[in-house]
Amino acid sequence: VAMSSLEQRLSRIEEKLKQENNDARRRIDLNIDMSPQRSRPRPTLQLPLTNDGGSRSSSSESSPQHHPSRPRNMLNLPTPQYVLQKSLENAEIDQKLQEIMKQTGYLKIDGQRYPAEVSDLISEGEIGSGTCGQVFKIRFKKTGHVIAVKQMRRTGNKDENKRILMDLDVVLKSHDCPYIIQCYGAIVTNTDVFIAMELMGTCAEKLKKRIQGPMPERILGKMTVAIVKALLYLKEKHGVIHRDVKPSNILLDDKGQIKLCDFGISGRLVDSKAKTRSAGCAAYMAPERIDPPDPSKPDYDIRADVWSLGISLVELATGQFPYKNCKTDFEVLTKVLQEDPPVLPHGMDFSNDFQSFVKDCLTKDHRKRPKYNKLLEHNFIRHYEVLEVDVAGWFQAVMDCTESPRSSQCYSHQHQLTSVFSR
């Protein structure tokens, strides 16, 4: 039986994902290669380590275990080949690189500007990976500050370079938003770009794995306020759509801060619409991005990120990914298109406002899905904008309890997690 056009498209997407995943494996190299020579095997130079095991932290934070039943590959959908558009993009990439090169070589921390080079970065271990690079916990030798540094390899691939520059461009411009990760500066070498950022505690994805269950509604309320305001800021101030909203890109720390990160696949909005379909994570992708009315004109707007936020909230609120039984991206994409949207289950004592907010985010018809300003008027956000919630205390309780689950202190924290911080 001949496959439908939609099935053929989804099959092509799945093949593209497999190829993209293989390409990513070939690109990943935890060592820092400083050799400009390409004609022979290239020697590598690692970041200086504080101890022999510094680059291989044994904690779950440094080597996250991916959920076996949830596709996590980055999704690069075919983009229409407009030669003029491509040449303009390449010129923009080259121009941005030149601008960034003028700013490279110093870090601005706590209002002070310090000259910086790679040898000033002392690694204390890898803490994660982003769209196009690894993230390390770093001690800045000149001042003793402990920061996060994302290392991204410069390649001849224009798409990779575009991701690097997009990530750097967004974080450098977003210094005035408290809900976006702060950037201290960048160091650019012949082979790599190092982006220095504030060090956060961990991401919502890893917190969910630590808890092994639902996150409290109060915490998710504060998280929602922060992420919607971050996304609105990106749109209003910089004309940018994030395109990769998911729990691993939502960061929290022991101060109670909640911030959005990883802007490598963000896109420019033209007349409030994104004009390319490239990039994203299949598991959180909105229906209109998977199957647009006109594939040759991929117009979608910030409401695609609203859908991704809704999927993330369902996952964190229930402790389970809503399409958890899917083994491939093909299955996820098919269910997103063919089934009713996920909802918060009624048996888990969620507030009516929370259920209503998630339902609004996961409105399948994107034309009826609310945009950010409308979401900010929702009772759920208005309630948590003003409610005092001890996010810092909850965060510390989770970290303490999962670090030493058998201690008496843990049982106290566990009681705190299930009572004080419940809705």
From TrEMBL:
**Keywords in alphabetical order:** ATP-binding, Kinase, Nucleotide-binding, Phosphoprotein, Serine/threonine-protein kinase, Transferase, Tyrosine-protein kinase
> Might you give the EC number(s) for this enzyme?
2.7.12.2
The similarity comment for this entry is: Belongs to the protein kinase superfamily. STE Ser/Thr protein kinase family. MAP kinase kinase subfamily.
Question: What EC class is this?
Answer: transferase
**Gene Ontology biological-process annotations:** regulation of intracellular signal transduction; response to stress; somitogenesis
**A GO MF label:** ATP binding
Give residue ranges for domain Protein kinase: 121-381
Q: What is this protein called?
A: mitogen-activated protein kinase kinase
Family matches, as InterPro entries: Dual_spec_MAPK_kinase, Kinase-like_dom_sf, Prot_kinase_dom, Ser/Thr_kinase_AS
Q: Where is the composition biased (Basic and acidic residues)?
A: 16-30
Q: Which PANTHER family match?
A: DUAL SPECIFICITY MITOGEN-ACTIVATED PROTEIN KINASE KINASE HEMIPTEROUS (PTHR47238:SF2), MITOGEN-ACTIVATED PROTEIN KINASE KINASE 5 (PTHR47238)
Q: Does the keyword rRNA-binding apply?
A: no
**Any Pfam family hit:** Pkinase
- Regions of biased composition (Low complexity) lie at 55-66
| Region named Disordered | 16-77
Its recorded reaction(s) are: L-tyrosyl-[protein] + ATP = O-phospho-L-tyrosyl-[protein] + ADP + H(+); L-threonyl-[protein] + ATP = O-phospho-L-threonyl-[protein] + ADP + H(+); L-seryl-[protein] + ATP = O-phospho-L-seryl-[protein] + ADP + H(+)
Q: Does the keyword DNA repair apply?
A: no
